[in-house]
């Protein structure tokens, strides 16, 4: 019987061998796939086992997103947003299966998985402590941000406000209205979060969209600043006092249409560039664009950053002056109509570029990254994007924009004791329909500290509001908050 | 069997010191694991660690003393190995109880372990000579059948989780199938020893294999019938496969005929396919194994448990998350059928390999006992018991790791469940008793007694 017993022993050995081979296959070869299977909730649990870094503003003084240790064994750390709506689009939210805004863009620093933090993570792993992420301090000015949100939400309309430091590119305000409360989207409960998200997603006002960077709109008359920049840049002998033809009606080539001024107003037939911009005459700028041609317009626009995508680190939808068509189309493009589409951030960059004597700085939201031990891991150094216009041209444009605020359509942005430069815009979306209202500005004109773009979307409750009436007061409040007046 | 048995048995050592040392080592590992669970969960050593550790240690010391007194020549490795697996099972159940999964109860399991050790000791003390069992061959066979049938009876049996394998007596639930397993192996051993010559020799040769006579097929067909009945009436694929496999293996050991193995496999596969055609639950199980990763089957719950077990093992990776740091609660019944998967998450591939190695060693010690035994009944019984242990580990571990279709069985000594623990401790008691007999050196001559020598036996 020993012979068969030995064969049975071999059979047992074979069975254990098979089991061991299979377990090895599962634990070593297939482990990666099993670990990352979407049905394996452990990755989901792991999200809540990281002591995620905070998101702050004003050098850490204002907390925008914080992590709370609940002591729960499965979902240990909860995420909360104490400032809520005004900051929702920038800060984003940390949802069970995704994250948006800065929560997503700086996720690897916040959860500590960034290569810069690899040593510290290894120490945590060995000592058995939960992983701790780095904190992200934003460039936002919390006070200005809250005022911008309050003002914009107070109008009852949709829109966006962007303010930045023209000398560095640091974004001081980025508000989109309507907004949402990010807290219900950051619960550790997929079903509840999905419900809340679906509700927001279905809302016809699209509160989840960050209107400052995700959508583009016709810039209207604010674009005339760029047309004027191209005009001045094209010939050094031109300046604010160059006299232009300003007919009441400009026939558009190859069409039987003609271009009129806003509400059919007259600019007196002849006007200086200064006057034309101050009262926002359409015909001289349309003529300017047609004379310069598409290429020069496109080139000038590109120098302000139009047409290129940006990561701030949120990704910004590229703005565009539209494709090359006929002269008539170019005339419309030159006054910010037709397929000319800008993000509010882009228009803030235009204001900032002129404020910074022609040099456009790359906009950014992250001030610095601070490790869990309080040491600075990284800080953003301001970077030049491009020189949009020469300092001389910038000075001429500034002079004209000051005039817009002091004597023209932008008078509601005046700040006592501060020279404000600005440009209004009212863009028709469709004939007979309400218009987009715009205002771009910077202050103080002699030593610019803040450049701002305010945008109010057409068709949102109420109508016929011009940039000067509805947008300029918001820019006024934001600038005042940033300047501390 | 003639040549090997004729050889003089080499002098064996008792190795009692080594046994005590390894027993202490096993208890220490278990205590360390307890501490690790507490540290993993809340950073504190659990207050019950000393109670559990000293309780287990005390039990094993008692078992050791019983062995030293009543079976001094017993294999020194068996008890420490079983202690380690049983202890790790206790730790895992304690750990799963901490997650709040319903049904996991470490205190109950410790109580059953204590009873199991008592049963072990009682068996070793009462059963002075295991060959007595041969006299009860048919009694054992009858008892085994009755135990198998009990859950099917109305009033007595209850269906839990789709299988009718439980009976309720007083406040207790018992799985009689676990004890039937023991009784039937004893029956097989006794029966095959008596009939093996006729089963082995009669028959005719066809092509390459010796076919047995048709009338000798009787016992095989009866066992096959019983297995299929278990499969159909109790919806218990695991026990069915376990019993039939063990019978075929023992038939092979006894007769040395490969044809029995082939006939057995053909019969079982045929029966299973037929059952699959008729009974949906077999088909569902098979489909849940073949297409386990399909989303539909997962969300329908067919392969949910299996996939959650695999996710756990995969997430554990090579070193595991560490005790107390995994998510065993994700796996339904992680404390019984799927305790192996739950262990895989927290102890990793490394822990699972160690665990399989311990099982393999227990089986190896059992088979060694079979080889060293001097009479055919002991050889068959020890071989059969060792094989059934290996076979059970293969069926359940292969099932939860998706090597073979999943059939419910307990992981010996680890899964929660009193009946299985008691039965398996008795199985080990039988092996220990047989190893004591096998390793006991023949009486030595006190003086030169010439041709008249005192024989034991």
From TrEMBL, chain A:
Q: Matching Pfam families, A to Z?
A: PBP_dimer_2 (PF21922), Transpeptidase (PF00905)
* Any one annotated GO CC term: plasma membrane
Penicillin binding protein A dimerisation domain ranges (all copies): 52-136
In this protein, which residues make up the domain named Penicillin-binding protein transpeptidase? 159-479
Gene Ontology terms, MF aspect: penicillin binding; peptidoglycan L,D-transpeptidase activity
Enumerate the Gene Ontology biological process terms.
Answer: cell wall organization
Q: Which PANTHER family did the record assign?
A: PENICILLIN-BINDING PROTEIN 4B, PEPTIDOGLYCAN D,D-TRANSPEPTIDASE
> What is the protein name given in its UniProt record?
Putative penicillin-binding protein PbpA
List the source organism.
Sphaerimonospora thailandensis
């Amino acid at each position: 019987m020993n012979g068969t017993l030995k064969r049975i022993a071999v059979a047992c050995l074979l069975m254990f061998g098979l089991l061991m081979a299979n377990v090895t296959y599962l634990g070593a070869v297939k482990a990666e796939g099993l670990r990352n299977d979407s049905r394996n909730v452990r990755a989901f649990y792991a999200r809540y086992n990281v002591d995620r870094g905070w998101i702050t503003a004003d050098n850490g003084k204002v907390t925008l997103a914080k992590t709370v240790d609940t002591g729960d064994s499965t979902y240990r750390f909860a995420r909360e947003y104490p400032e809520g709506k005004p900051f929702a689009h920038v800060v984003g939210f940390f949802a069970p299966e995704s994250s948006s805004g800065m929560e997503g863009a700086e996720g690897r620093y916040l959860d500590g998985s960034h290569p810069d933090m690899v040593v510290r993570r290894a120490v945590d792993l060995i000592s058995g402590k939960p992983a701790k992420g780095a904190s992200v301090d934003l460039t936002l000015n919390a006070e200005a941000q809250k005022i911008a949100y309050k003002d914009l939400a107070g109008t009852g309309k949709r829109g966006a406000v962007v303010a930045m430091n023209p000398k560095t590119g640091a974004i001081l305000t980025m508000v989109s209205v309507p907004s949402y409360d990010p807290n219900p989207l950051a619960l550790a409960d997929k079903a509840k979060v999905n419900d809340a998200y679906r509700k927001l997603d279905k809302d016809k006002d699209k509160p989840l969209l960050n209107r400052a960077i995700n959508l583009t709109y016709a810039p209207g008359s604010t674009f005339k600043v760029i047309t004027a920049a191209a005009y001045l840049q094209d010939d050094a002998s031109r300046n604010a006092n160059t006299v232009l033809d300003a007919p009441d009606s400009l026939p558009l080539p190859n069409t039987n249409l003609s271009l009129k001024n806003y509400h059919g107003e007259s600019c007196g037939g002849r006007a200086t560039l200064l006057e034309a911009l101050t009262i926002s005459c359409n015909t001289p700028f349309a003529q300017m664009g047609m004379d310069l041609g598409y290429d020069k317009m496109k080139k000038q626009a590109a120098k302000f950053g139009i047409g290129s995508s940006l990561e701030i680190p949120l990704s910004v939808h590229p703005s565009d002056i539209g494709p090359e068509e006929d002269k008539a189309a170019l005339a419309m493009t030159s006054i910010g109509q037709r397929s000319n589409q800008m993000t509010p951030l882009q228009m803030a960059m235009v204001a900032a570029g002129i404020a910074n004597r022609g040099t456009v700085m790359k906009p950014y939201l992250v001030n610095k990254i601070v490790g869990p031990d309080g040491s600075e891991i990284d800080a953003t150094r301001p970077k030049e994007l491009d020189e949009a216009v020469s300092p001389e041209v910038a000075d001429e444009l500034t002079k004209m924009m000051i005039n817009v605020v002091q004597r023209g359509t932008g008078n509601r942005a005046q700040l006592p004791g501060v020279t404000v430069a600005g440009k209004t815009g009212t863009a028709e979306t469709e004939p007979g329909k309400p218009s987009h209202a715009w205002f771009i500005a910077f202050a103080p004109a002699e030593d610019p500290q803040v450049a701002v773009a305010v945008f109010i979307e057409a068709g949102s409750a109420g109508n016929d509001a011009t940039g000067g009436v509805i947008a300029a007061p918001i820019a006024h409040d934001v600038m005042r908050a940033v300047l501390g007046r | 069997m003639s040549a090997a048995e004729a050889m003089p048995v080499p002098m064996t050592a008792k190795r009692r010191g080594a046994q005590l040392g390894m027993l202490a080592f096993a208890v220490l590992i278990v205590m360390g694991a307890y501490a690790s669970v507490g540290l993993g969960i809340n950073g504190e050593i659990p207050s019950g660690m000393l109670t559990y550790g000293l309780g287990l240690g005390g039990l094993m010391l008692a078992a050791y003393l019983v062995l030293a007194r009543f079976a001094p020549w017993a294999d020194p490795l068996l008890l420490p190995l079983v202690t380690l697996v049983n202890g790790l099972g206790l730790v895992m159940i304690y750990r799963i109880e901490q997650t709040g999964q319903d049904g996991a109860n470490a205190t109950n399991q410790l109580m059953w372990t204590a009873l199991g050790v008592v049963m072990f000791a009682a068996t070793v003390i009462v059963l002075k000579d295991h060959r007595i069992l041969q006299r009860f061959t048919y009694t054992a066979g009858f008892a085994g059948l009755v135990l198998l049938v009990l859950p099917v009876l109305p009033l007595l049996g209850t269906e839990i989780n789709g299988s009718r394998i439980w009976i309720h007596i007083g406040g207790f639930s018992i799985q009689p199938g676990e004890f039937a397993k023991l009784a039937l192996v004893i029956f097989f051993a006794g029966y095959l020893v008596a009939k093996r010559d006729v089963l082995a020799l009669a028959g005719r040769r066809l092509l390459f294999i010796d076919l047995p006579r048709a009338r000798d097929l009787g016992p095989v067909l009866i066992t096959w019938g019983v297995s299929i009945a278990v499969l159909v009436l109790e919806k218990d694929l695991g026990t069915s496969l376990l019993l039939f496999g063990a019978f075929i293996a023992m038939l092979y050991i006894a007769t040395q005929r490969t044809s029995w193995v082939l006939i057995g496999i053909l019969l079982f596969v045929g029966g299973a396919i037929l059952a699959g055609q008729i009974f949906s639950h077999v088909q569902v199980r098979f489909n849940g194994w073949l297409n386990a990763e399909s989303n539909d089957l997962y969300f329908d719950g067919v392969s949910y448990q299996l996939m959650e077990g695999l996710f756990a093992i995969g997430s554990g990776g090579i070193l595991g998350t560490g005790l107390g740091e995994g998510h065993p609660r994700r796996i339904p019944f992680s404390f019984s059928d799927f305790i192996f998967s739950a262990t895989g998450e927290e102890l990793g591939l490394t822990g699972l390999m160690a665990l399989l190695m311990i099982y393999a060693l227990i089986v190896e010690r059992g088979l060694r006992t079979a080889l060293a035994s001097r009479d055919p009944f002991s050889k068959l019984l020890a071989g059969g018991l060792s094989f059934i242990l290996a076979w059970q580990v293969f069926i359940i571990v292969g099932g939860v790791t998706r090597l073979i279709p999943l059939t419910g069985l307990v992981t010996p000594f680890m899964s929660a469940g009193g009946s299985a623990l008691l039965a398996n401790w008795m199985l080990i008691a039988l092996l220990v008793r047989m190893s004591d007999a096998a390793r006991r050196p023949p009486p030595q001559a006190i003086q030169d007694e010439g041709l008249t020598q005192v024989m034991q036996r």
